[in-house]
Amino acid sequence: MESVRLLRLTSRVWLHKFALVFLTIVFLTLIFKALKSSKQTASQNVSNERYDGEKDDEDEHGLAEATSSENYGVCQQPNEVGNMFQEWSKTNQTPLIIITPTYERSEQTAELTRLSQTLQLLIWAQMPLIWIIAHDSRVCHENVRALIDRKLGSNPFGNRFDEAQKNYNRPLVGTRLPVTILSAPMPSAFRDPERVRRFGLPRGVAGRRAALSWLIKHTRANDPGVIYFADDDNVYDLEVFEEISKTHRLSMFPVGLLQPSGVRGPIVDVHGRVIGFLGGRRPFRMFPVDMAGFAFSLALLHQKRPLMPFRATMEEEGFLRALGVDYGGIEPLANNCTRILVWHTMTAAPQVNSFQIPNPSGYSDTNLPLLAQNMVEQGLIKAAKGWFSHDIPTCLGQTCYT
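and the corresponding structure tokens:
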């Protein structure tokens, strides 16, 4: 009897000890979570303070008034844009809305050619798509429109491809890629040399803002669609567009060839949740991502009406904050951000000398006049009046050579 009583007493003692240890663990866990949450909040507050401080610094220069409204012109757009989105809404596919800002430079033709033919492959695969090109110019440039029309308006493979189609039950070439071309000049305030020296040149911001304004005007809040900023100096695996089409509100994925680590994108835990970012240089950013590393829904655009700031290196940060998302709302794509399907190649301007046309009296029957004319059309050279004369200099890019 005494031994039974002793056993019960011992059991109670161990039970009390176990309960005490359990309660201690729970208490310490709660304290740890509270400290972690407080640290994240403080870090985010510091981030907000620094970011807000930079925005205030912009306002001191009187730039808020300069960007209070969008200034763009429509050079070309598909007929009945609204009907196009309504037709897409009747299908189970999500249309992709590709926005590409561009500006005049010697490599512009080469890069737009690469991107246009990449997107044409998606059309051939019968993926719903619209491409918005926003040119940094006050007027519509005929060479850009002509380039896109030439690359997308006809079958580049000619009879060879026409013959190949006979072996298939459906055409290999789909409908024409719908293209909108806008003229969207950067406000002159942001080209001020002193401001550029201090803050950098916010290249592409005016174009992206103009494209988003055009979308809001021509679409409805319940229209389907996923928006992606596809700069023309990147290289895209076709699979990245299939991944983007899975976006519900805001998705992210890695971008390769970015300093300092060679990649930039989300860090994802085993549960598929974004817990941080890789490759960011500025610790106070909430979203140290590349412009090509995220996509968002058309519905989210209509809901938030975000504006991208005219601030070099802070465009992505300001825009994503304007979307009002946090880490929990990010959808990691590309197999939980383990694959790189887009590369920020940043084509460098070629270092070449001037191209001088010899005296046409001795070369009029050669290929040189037509070759030079094609170079002008592609933006490789700019010619002054009378440029066929050997003593008239040509202009390469923005620089004239004698």
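(Above: one complete record from the training split.) The chain has 14 helices and 16 strands.
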